[in-house]
Design a protein that fits this description.
By secondary structure, the chain is mainly alpha-helical. The chain contains 17 helices and no strands.
Length: about 325
């Protein structure tokens, strides 16, 4: 079902377009990895000595680390170990990330990066239909985000991370302010452009969303979160009613990250609305294999999209055979 098709989108098909149309180009030059670890001082480990280096490999693939120095080296190390689990956006990795992050905040309760990442992990459990009690997960995500925001300062990484839980709990105006500030501080942050892409789809601006995702991809072409940008572009096309493009981009994301089975919620709906009934049934089987108790109402409750888009997703899933 998931063939390696090339997604059809005008701004990704030709690099020449970026040279001739300034409005389609990033606001900054190519992303430079700033190696935020160096801000901590000589007594702190270099990036090559940290668990994040071992997990990620290349410095260009890691999000910038925050300027605020934690008091505890142990808490810092735990956050570095949590990072790849946080951005994998898979259920088991999410649980491991939470375990590490709660250990970090037990050592240093006001460690703002750890708090913000923990808030995002709880928000992931909501939006990806992993939470056993979604209302409790929403409450915890918001509580931790508010705690982190009090000490986030001018750190663009923390502001970017906080944009995710605030958006997922429907505090869109707060998320917008945080992401605007993050991009003002670091216009070359691929992570911030990625989060802004999701927010713009939630706000009903799919074409702006696609532009922001494309900026993220150009700034960091080997970023470990690029699969999420592909799926986000697919969601934006779905919002705009371009179901063929939606399916192609979501398929691309799933080829890069097969474990992101939550993306089948939109993909199955796109297949159904395209009349690709056999693909829809196969996709639904894949989804239900990972989510045996998933229903249309649970999907609607988890997703953050505008109501008209939720209605179309629900209609597509219902027609594919998902229980109400």
């Amino acid at each position: 079902m998931l063939e390696a098709k090339r997604p059809r989108h005008r701004a990704m098909e030709s690099s020449a377009h970026d040279h001739t149309c300034p409005s389609r180009r990033p606001t900054g030059t190519s992303r430079e990895s700033q190696g935020g670890h160096s801000r901590f001082g000589a007594e702190w480990p270099t990036f090559s000595e940290t668990p994040l280096r071992r997990h990620v490999g290349n410095l260009e693939q890691a999000p910038e680390l925050p300027a605020k120095r934690p008091e505890s080296l142990d808490a810092y190390d735990l956050v570095l170990r949590a990072y790849p689990n946080v951005w994998s956006l898979e259920r088991a990795a999410n649980a491991e990330a939470l375990k590490l992050l709660y250990q970090a905040t037990a050592i240093e309760p006001d460690y703002s990066l750890a708090l913000s990442l923990t808030a995002w992990c709880h928000a992931q459990q909501v939006v990806y239909n992993w939470a056993v009690e979604p209302a409790s997960a929403r409450t915890e995500a918001l509580r931790l985000a508010q705690m982190a925001a009090t000490t986030s300062g001018e750190d663009p990484t923390i502001l970017t991370v906080l944009g995710a839980p605030y958006a997922i709990v429907h505090k869109h105006s707060v998320a917008a302010r945080l992401l605007e500030k993050a991009l003002a501080l670091d216009p070359n942050s691929a992570w911030a452009w990625n989060r802004s892409g999701w927010l713009q789809t939630y706000l009903g601006n799919p074409d702006i969303s696609i532009d922001h995702f494309e900026r993220a991809l150009r700034l960091s072409p080997f970023d470990p979160l690029n699969f999420n940008a592909y799926i986000g572009i697919g969601g934006a096309h779905f919002a705009a009613g371009r179901y063929d493009d939606a399916a192609l981009w979501i398929e691309k994301g799933l080829i890069d990250r097969p474990g992101a089975t939550w993306a089948y919620r939109e993909l199955v709906a796109a297949y159904t609305l395209l009349g690709r009934d056999s693909d829809a049934r196969a996709g639904l089987l894949r989804l239900i294999n990972d989510y045996p108790d998933l229903t249309v109402s649970k999907v609607r409750s988890a997703l953050v999209y505008p109501q008209p888009m939720l209605d179309r997703i629900a209609d597509g899933l219902r027609k594919a055979g998902m229980a109400e």
